[in-house]
Specification:
The protein is of the alpha/beta class and 105 residues long. It contains 4 helices and 7 strands. The chain has helices at 10-15, 28-33, 47-50, 68-79; strands spanning 4-6, 20-24, 34-36, 40-41, 59-63, 83-88, 99-101.
């Protein structure tokens, strides 16, 4: 079973340069408004089509808005042999220092 970490722990992973890829599963509009610095956006509706973009040799940390979609993706990707970490709670609870705010054009 894959590990789940708290959204509050994400900054520690970033600060310690962990060999990981942070994946934001929210839709593009939400990602463009605000996301965690360094996260790549693969909307939940598209993740199955785009998994080939993700490296098997790194830990993949997934987050979504509330935690449910990242749990589904982690379960499925672990079965495919990926090293995954679920970020529990979701982005709505993130108050860390790596919040990037964008603008919708």
């Amino acid at each position: 079973m894959f590990p789940t970490i708290s959204i509050r722990d994400v900054d520690w992973y970033i600060d310690n340069n962990c060999d990981m890829v942070l994946v934001d599963l929210r839709n593009r509009t939400d990602y463009e408004r605000s996301h965690i610095k360094g996260a790549v956006n693969i909307p939940f509706e598209e993740w199955e089509e785009k998994i080939s973009r993700l490296p098997r040799e790194k830990y993949l940390l997934f987050y979504c808005s509330r935690g449910g979609e990242s749990l589904i993706v982690c379960r499925d990707m672990e079965q495919m042999g990926y090293q995954v970490v679920n970020i529990g709670g979701g982005y709505i609870y993130y108050r860390g220092k790596y919040r990037v705010r964008g603008q919708i054009h």
